[in-house]
Amino acid sequence: RRWYQHWWAYLIAIVVGSQLSFLAAVQFRIHFAEAFFVPTRAMSNAIMAGDRIIVEKRAYSGRAVERGDIVVARIINWNATVVVCRVIGLPGDTIAIRNEKVFLNGQPLEEPYLNLVDERGDVEKLMNLSERTIPEGEVFLMGDRRRLSYDSRLY
Questions:
Q1: Start-to-end CA span in the chain (Å)
Q2: Average pLDDT of the chain to the nearest whole number
Q3: 12: helix, coil or strand?
C-alpha cells in the first residue's frame, strides 16, 4: 500500500489543512479587513446601533485621512477601546466647541451629517471645549450624535 492509502494520511491532511485555513484567516484579519459590531448610537444615522461593519485596514495606505471620513480607531488610553467616529480635525488644525457648535480654525464647521436629537447623554457636559491645536500624527474624532459620543473630547 502507498502512504496516501492509509487513514493517518487523511488525518494529517485534515489537520494541516485546517491549521493553514486558520492561519490564513488570522493573517487576513490582521492585514486586510476586520468585522466590528457597533453597540452604540453615537454615529446614527450614518451607522446605526446593532450594525455590523467591515473595516478595510489598507484604506489609507495610498492616501491621507480626510475631514469627514468615518474611521474606526483603537484608543490606547482607554485600554484599546474601539470607537467609530467621524474625522473632524486634522493635524495642525485648531478646534474649539462653543454651545455645541464646532469651530475649526476659527470658523464654524458646516456639518450636514450632524444628528442633534433632543436627548440627554453622558457627555452633555462636553458641549464646550476650549481652543486646542491638533498635534502632528493625530486627528480629532467626534460622533455624529454628540451627546452620546465618547470621542476626542474625552482623551
A1: 68
A2: 87
A3: helix
